[in-house]
Fold this protein.
Amino acid sequence: MKTKIILIYFFIFLGTNLFSQKKYNSILLENGYLHVGNGQVLETSLIGIKNGKIVLVKNVLAYTYNKSDWDTIIDLKGQQVYPGFVAPNSTLGLTEIEAVRASNDFREIGEFNPHVRAQIAYNAESNVLSTIKTNGVLITQPCPRGEVISGSSAVMYTAGWNWQDATVKADDGIHLNWPRSIEYRGKKNENYETQKREIYQFFESAKAYSEVSESDKNDFRFESMRNCFKGEKRVYIHANSIQQLLDIIDFAKKLNLTFPVIVGGYDSYLILQKLRDAAIPVMLPRVHSLPENEEDPTDLPYKLPYLLQAGGVKFCLQNEGDMEAMQSRNIPFLAGTAMAYGLTEEEAIRSISLSSCEIMGVGKTNGSVEEGKDATFFISSGNALDMRTNNIVLAFVNGKIISLNNSQMELYKKYTEKLKK
Amino acid sequence: MKYIFSLLFLFSFFVFSQEFSPKNGVEDSKTAYYFLTNATIIVSPTKTIDGGSLLIKDHEIIEIGKSISAPKNAVIVDCQGKTIVAAFIETYSSVGLPEPTSKGFSFQPQIETSKKGAYYWNESIHPETDPSLVYSINEKANEELIKMGFGIAVTHIQDGIARGNGSLISLGSSSENKHLLKPASASYFSFKPGISNQTYPSSQMGSIALLRQTFYDLQWYSHATKKDQNLSLNALEKQTSLPMIFFTEDKWEILRAAKIGNEFNYHFTFFGSGNEYAAVNQLKNLKGSLIIPINFPAPFDLKDPYIAKDVNLSDLKTWDLAPSNPFILKENKINFSISSYGNKSQDEFWKNLHKAISKGLSPADALNALTVEPAKLLKIDHEFGTLDKGKKASFMIYDSNPFTTKAKLLEAWLLGERKVITTLPKHDIRGKYNLFLDGKKYPMEITGTPDKLNVKIQTLKTGISKTDTIYPNTFVQLVENDLTLQFNVDDANFDGSINLHAKVNSKLGIFEGDGYLPSGKWIQWSAIRNDKPETKKEDLSIKIDTNGISNPWFPNVAYGLDSVPTKQTIAFINATVWTNEAEGILQNATVIVNNGLIVYVGDSNHLLPLNAKVINARGKFLTSGIIDEHSHIAISKGVNEGGQVISAEVNIGEVLNSDDINIYRQLSGGVTAAQLLHGSANAIGGQSALIKLKWGHSPDELLIPNAPKFIKFALGENVKQSNFGDFNTTRFPQTRMGVEQVFYDGFKRAETYQNEWKHSKKSSDGLHNHHLHRDLELDVLSEILNGERFITCHSYVQSEILMLMKVADSMGFKINTFTHILEGYKVADKMALHGAAASTFADWWAYKYEVNDAIPYNAKLMADNGLLVSINSDDAEMGRRLNQEAAKSVKYGGMSEIEAWKMVTLNPAKILHLDNKMGSIKIGKDADLVLWSDNPLSIKAKVEYTIIDGEILYSLEQDKLLQARNELEKGRIISKMMESTENGETPKPFAKKRRKHFHCDTIGEEGSEGANTH
């Protein structure tokens, strides 16, 4: 059976229901303007998906293929194809309504909680989550918030039946909140050195523990950090000021962390060379935020991505801050603003797709539309980085077409009907 | 007559006996006259007598002049080389009074007064406070002030909004009966509620409203025939005829206090905060005088650049300019008194006074500000302030002119009571001596300063192979002419401690006295000077340098402008113009601005004015400025008066802060006007301010002239305090049911109130009807009933929206705007019937329970149902991206670009009833324009120019220049700061003021930092 579909504007409402009833094993997408995610563009692309994997990415004009090899062929002429956007460092799935305590699952008690895991608290059925995918954000990273080490995050799809199905990577890294060199109230933190020493001690002990084989599992905390020294597990270190960042570079070196990542890094633009040399990537602060200091350029937060790009430091965007869960759907527009303030369009796209996945350690399978990767991408009828034209008509998560419907659309439909009467 | 000085510590003579107290023993003896002669007498700021004399009897100056002679029975005090200056007058002190103590913090809000007695209903209004009842002499505190040169002070308990009396005291210590001069000498006011735990007022605008209401209460109370007893108002009535001193903490607070003064025709004296230099244009026209502190800020410790980087430029500017405050005020002909307030020690006070003088304040002006001015304002200039004949004998004797040199205070004369502070400098015994001990000679050298001597005695220790010269540690003490020496010797002569005492003859350089040798032998000893060192006289004069004075910026923060911006003639040519009018989008068009207005919109065939700044806008987009219907920037000290459930009496317009950096940031996002709303902590909040973002102007100049009146209402979770923690469960209402009743109750009271006023006649002056009791809250509610004030109501869910429209319909008023209105789409039809407009967020939701059904299609659905819809920010950050927020309605629901754009320009103008002046590009409208690099709804659009009333307040080009200038200025001041630290100023540890922003639910005077629920 072969289905030929032309995508139309309100495909979202009609199409997804259609798809959900059938199983498609081999899909060919023709003629889409493909933003690969790695900085490349294929203006007339051919994308083939089989068994959930991308098996073919070619220029349609320079490739001959047999249409009968595919059970579904979709013509994307005039449409744009993007890798699934990523919302790293978020509480998405761990909260529903922040003011309602019972709905919050992101802050655990305790100073050092590397063993506390976000993955299993991730609510795949969250109403908030359902509005995120609709804007093209298909991967997220639920992160515990808390004291010194707040817990382990996970890389998750924004669509799935349950956390198990939605997992891209469990326990991808632990989150360390570096002490503030300057406290909230603006005073110099007199205990900074002591607090730093505590972190060193904890990590040194964890490192020593990791030297003994895995059969000796007797400490949940240290066990959860074993791979920070031996494997791929990230240590996400949250910090912003230059003092903190330099101390973190030292820390990562002394502890020989395999994958340190700075989350925040407002001052990173001042130490580009050092970050580049240390090969520490940065998850930049929310682009749509105000400058920290009175005399900072008004557009400094908008320009940070460009400054890091120009300085050769690996980075991606994230969205931590006020209403961060709900705001995750605006990640595409953060990249849009970064584009207006210096990044090229493809660099901007990379900063919310492949770069994010690489930093989280899932770049080999996710983050771009390339042969061999998991099919997690979407089609927009217009430029997805501009709020006027971000209009997702079709999205694949791990090779499956997902429903783009959400509770807000339901209410929209319901009251459109009601108010017509 | 030197012997007088050599008397050790002459303590106060009791010049008077206590008049009524019975004496134990015979009457105290009295000195008939004192005759101080050969002095330099600074009689007044304009008159100095060299070699003058002063004749004093009891507490009065009997005679002063050059050629007066002493009566025979006068004690003569030779003041050769000394300077006599009138005692300074401190106008702001709490000396001799107990500290106000709070009852302690409680989680439970205290809504009513806890003070027992027939007093005012609010604990921060306590004019009945009478410090004279609790005044007792605190000699230590007095002495600190005396050492600063003060002899007279007004002391009051520094707490509350109406604080009570200040008592005039002399700083002498003989008895309260003598030195408490006037129990009620002044009255004190402030905007700070102080130790009161009552929830109201919790914001500065609340304090303003409370004080105004108190004065209206007083007006009525003074004339009312049928009234209850109120001890607070009784006291306040008397105080309005005293000098009224108003404490402020910022230059703009002075203007706020002045408005209250003008309203009630009170002549306040304003106690300033030291940053008045940044408001001279406004303060020039101030009615009433100023008192300024000279507690100049200490430099920051900025050695570490990682710390220096985080210090706000405005804090650096403040440090740089503060010492020039007195000079700049004088330059601008603004009179002031100086207070020692905030100086913790006499050293600090004199250092700061000298700093002010070194920055250009003339010694005469300094003296004037410390004596004549305060005497005038306290109405005691017939007794104090100068050293004229007949005035009180309250003055200080210094060893030199204290204004031009670092002088020492020698004596204080307080109402004729003499108090010796410092005896003459010690004898200078420095030099080389031979010390003779029991026939043995030791070379001795005395170095150091007269205050801190250093003695080196040379002894020889003979060892086996060589002889070492040893200088033993030597203790030395010189009191007057008594010298004590002690040292340990181990030589051929002695082995052990030598303890010596001698009388000093410094003129001859001889010490003679007695002592113990280590052997216990009592000896006579002596020392004779054989060489006197050349002593360099320490230069104590104050250097004056006015070259380094920088100018304040407008405002005096980063990105402040060098001068107040002015209207320009501007022509945009070749622009794509989004007119928001029937013409739609014009291509290659010209728009001309003159005198703050748009004077031409059309094709390029128009002649450009010769003086016009021509901006070539080829490829760019010109629009009218963005109007933010819901903003909380540029507000001082509290956005919510949540202390009461109805606070209609408070007004955001009274607490504008034109220094807020967010004004500039929003200009960079194309915002030109905003409605600054009260928060949503109560059902009927406060009055809004409709402003333009006129960077560089004063608070009042931000206000849009003749703007319609607005007030904020609120419904839902914030009003019922759902998210305010478990302790906030006692204020009515706690449910939406209660909220309805608050409205009915308020408007019913307003109706009754209005009727009373309608049926009464005006008093003869036509202004106030004293027989009726004016109520500021009900005044405002009446305006609503009369259709004179529009309502913007914070609202979320459909039930409460319907409820309020029903209340309004039944009470005969209208809801102009529902703001937030995230469930507006559910009841858009009913809102259309009522005639309400909607101002909403583009896509916010899920931050609290009542926004669970918020959808981003809301704006579109409401617009489709005929509602006037705008998109607002309610957020300092989002405020500068409202173009993007508007663009979201193109995505969510498919609104056309023009309609989406109108939601942040023309629609809010209409909602705010400002569309006759703003919201579109049309001849005759205000020149509030923005030039964009791209289609303004595009994610790529950047603002290149923002113009308000024809003033260019932001441009990319200017922004670059300002950034470079900020950098230079920061570098300059940091260098200066480090230099001052090297020169001995003690730096204070760095403390950065964090950026804080007000949101709907922010309680208290401080902005919030963390999450908020809007």
